[in-house]
Amino acid sequence: MEDNSQSARNGSDVGTDEALAVMRAMVWIADSTVSEVTAQLTLTQFRALVIIAEAKPPVIMGRVADDLAMNPSSVTRACDRLVQLELVQRARNPLNRRETLLAPTANGREIVARVNRQRREMLADVLQRMSPADRSAAMAVFARFAEAASPTED
């Protein structure tokens, strides 16, 4: 049996095991919807596409790297693939030649919309399997969790 100090170190006393199970389910939904809509994209490439498609264009490549918490060269490779697939357009910033500007194509926006629709459908299916009381409680917890997980502005 685990002692309290060990329990505190691994976080099980605050529900991290349950949260990890939910995270795995959400990652499965995220991954399966991307691969079903387009097997041509990795999850990282799709995440970059979402940032580009959901921001007010154009988006600076550095912002995509920051939002993904990835090094710029990795993001450049991901965006190269998006450009190759004609999901994103790329151009040099005429006001700052060191910056690369990105904008989604119509096809890129459509892929993000299709994946989001499919994710909503899958989540709705899961939520429908829950009792109304559990579904209501889950929605309240999801909202509080999303708020707590949001990065804080300095």
TrEMBL record:
Presence of keyword Transcription regulation: yes
Stored InterPro entries: HTH_MarR-typ, MarR/SlyA-like, Tscrpt_reg_MarR-type_CS, WH-like_DNA-bd_sf, WH_DNA-bd_sf
Stored SUPFAM superfamilies: Winged helix' DNA-binding domain (SSF46785)
Keywords: DNA-binding, Transcription, Transcription regulation
Domain HTH marR-type: 16-147
Signal sequence region: none
Gene3D superfamilies referenced in this protein's UniProt entry, alphabetically: Winged helix-like DNA-binding domain superfamily/Winged helix DNA-binding domain
Protein name: MarR family transcriptional regulator
Organism of derivation: Saccharopolyspora halophila
Lineage, top ranks: Bacteria, Bacillati, Actinomycetota, Actinomycetes, Pseudonocardiales
